[in-house]
Structures are given as C-alpha cells and as structure tokens.
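Could you help me review a protein record that somebody else here produced? Do not assume that whoever made the record got everything right. The record follows directly below this note.
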Amino acid sequence: MPATFLDRVPAFKHNVTPELKREILEFRSQTHNVDKKLDLKLPLPEKIEDSKKIHVQFPHSKDIEGKIVEYALELDNYEVQSSVRAQDYVKTFMRANPC
C-alpha cells in the first residue's frame, strides 16, 4: 500500500464472524429501504418521460428477505462482494427485473 494511504487511514482489524454478518443483514432487511436512498438526476442521452416510468416496490416478506440474506452471505463467502453490498445488489436487481 502507498505510504500516503497508510498515513491517512489507520490500520485496524475487525473480527466479523458469519453470525455477525447474518445479524447485520437481517437488521438491514427490517430497517433499510432502498427507496429512501438519495435520488440523483443524471443526464441521460434519451430521457424517459415521467408518464412512462414505473415504480417497482416489493411487499415486505420475511421469506423473501431471508433468501436475500442467504444469497448475500453466499456471495460474501465466495468473496464476490461484501455481504452488505450483495444485499443491496440483489434488491436492486429484483427491482430492475420484475417478473
């Protein structure tokens, strides 16, 4: 690592167990709502008219949230993404690809 990074960011270690990751994901699934995130307006080449936009929202289901937690932990175990990032990724993917 570059010396400037180590000068600015102190090194420390977290002892995060799989049980703690599961607890964090389950807590986030109850309290964290993707719809409440910051809404950024980006310049797009083709503007989608407001009347053509759809809003996808899933009803809260313990079964669905449990499966999302399992998928997020699996992606974390394979070191594809962190469990928290994977949880957001799965929810965003589901919203972008409604059946």
Q: What stands out?
A: The two ends are 45 Å apart (CA to CA).
